[in-house]
Design a protein that fits this description.
This protein is of the alpha+beta class. Helices cover 39% and strands 18% of the residues. It folds into two domains: 41 residues, no CATH class; 115 residues, ArgJ beta chain, C-terminal domain (Ubiquitin-like (UB roll), Roll). The protein has a six-stranded mixed sheet with strand order 4-3-2-5-1-6. It is globular and about 60 Å long.
Length: 194
């Protein structure tokens, strides 16, 4: 379960904070009468892969069901010097309020994405830094690229899309799921009283 949630549910960020109610539980009744998996083996790998896929699907559903969310996105960071830097940068981009607002507005604002990556406190090479929206390159080797703005807006306006950032300093990668920041999110949390 730990391996599955580390690569799925724990990669989801809605508003930068875990809820005190966030819980993931797995139960087994034993009714299938399968041999218990007690150590890493091919059955362990197969089960972990299936459970990770299931938890990944749940994470995406949760992002789309988050308070006021209208869109979810996956941030993939490549070219990091370490896995920790890749994870930190991906989480920083997914949690950056201006990126979340741009996604809500359908604005393909690569500048906000690059700013979030640059503010993450990770090693990067400004001359190799690149960004894609799904498969559309919008920033490459530290330079903005010409792109079809209407197509880019359509990508960002989809209910799900992927932002890929290459830090240009290594070979490590990681990802994070995020969702947009809507007026409804503000209303839900501003109007809520204990």
């Amino acid at each position: 379960m730990k391996a599955a949630i580390d690569n799925s549910l724990n990669k989801l960020i809605v508003d930068g904070h875990q809820s005190t109610n966030d819980t993931a539980i797995i139960l087994a009744s034993g009714l299938a009468a399968n041999r218990p998996i007690v150590s890493p083996c091919p059955r362990y790998e197969k089960f972990t892969e299936a459970l990770t896929d299931l938890c990944g699907d749940l994470a995406e559903q949760m992002a789309l069901d988050a308070e006021g969310a209208t869109r979810m996105f996956k941030v993939i960071v490549r070219g990091a010097s370490t896995k920790a830097d890749a994870a930190k940068a991906a989480r920083a981009i997914a949690d950056y309020p201006l990126v979340k607002c741009a996604v809500h507005g359908g604005d393909p604002n690569w500048g906000r994405i690059i700013c979030a990556a640059g503010s993450a406190g990770v090693k990067l090479n400004p001359n190799k830094l690149s960004c894609k929206l799904d498969n559309m390159i919008v920033f490459k080797d530290g330079v903005p690229k010409k792109f079809d703005a209407r197509k880019a807006r359509r990508i960002i306006s989809k209910s799900q899309h992927t932002i890929t950032v290459d830090l240009g300093v290594g070979f490590s990668s990681d990802f994070c799921y995020g969702c947009d920041l809507s007026k409804q999110y503000v209303s839900i949390n501003a109007d809520y009283h204990t």
